[in-house]
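Reagents: none. Just compute today. Small ribosomal subunit protein uS5m.
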Amino acid sequence: MFSTVKSSIGPQLIRSLSFSPMARQSTKRAEEHIAYLSKFYTPELLQSIKITESLVEPDTILKLTKQGPNALSKLGLQNTDYSKTDPKWDEPVLYPNQAVNKTPYPNIPQVQAPDRSDLKLRFSPGKGPRKDNFATSRGVSEGLSKLTGLDKRYIERLYVRPVVMKRVSCQTSKGKIPNFFALTVVGDGNGMVGLGEGKSRDGMRTALVKAHWNAVKNLAPVQRYEDRTILGDIDYKYHAVKLFLQSAPAGFGLRVNSKIFEVCQAAGIKDLRGKIYKSRNPMNVVKGFVEALTKQRGLQDLAGGRGKKLIDLRKVYYSA
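Predicted 3D structure written out:
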């Protein structure tokens, strides 16, 4: 239909031509064209088409015809930015199962050029370094104090360390839903240690706060020999992880896996040697080690099982 419009001749051109055979042929073509357009357009639109065609020069139509189907008219809209006129562009993008005013991913810093280091970031820097202990920054300590009965200052001074942080996906019938997982260990460095998990769709920081909350709730005492090492050798199996740990003399240090090292720092264990066999999944390693520590048999139980006094057991097993 529009290919016929390109070859049309306006009324102004018809009036300017003389009544030669070529002029009569052009007039006939123009009348046929108008009759053809009347089948598809209302009289009002047909009148506007006539006015528009009368303003187009024949040379312009000839040039467009020579250029073929790839020809572009200069009468159309030029350099139109719909992002400035369409309000839909200003609406935020919402992800499946997303909380209000939250995004599942952290904000990406916007720099003026990624290949230049001398340009400053567009956002203003923070007032100070971020603290690892989320109890003071999020007001978690006050709620935990009411829940557990522990002192608020004691909770704020706890050693907090995220051990595992990862982004996971929940596969549902609606697709993959992004999620964040965190595993945190807390302790006072004096025989108390706790492990907690946290999940959130609002970001990693929310998952860390939940993990810290659960870890403080799960605080449990750990038996230590001379407040520095474990009571004896531990050969413990947790799922596919096999832990073999040995007590060490004073000043030996922590020669263990990096995840076990963080748990020892929280529990106050200063001397330990150990080896992990088979699976080294960080989550299972930490859970297995904490479970092995809490299930240790005390010196009283070991002495009672062998029919010896506590002082004899210390002398036999620890050369005390």
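The chain has three domains: 2-68, 138-221, 234-318.
Action item: order primers for follow-up constructs.
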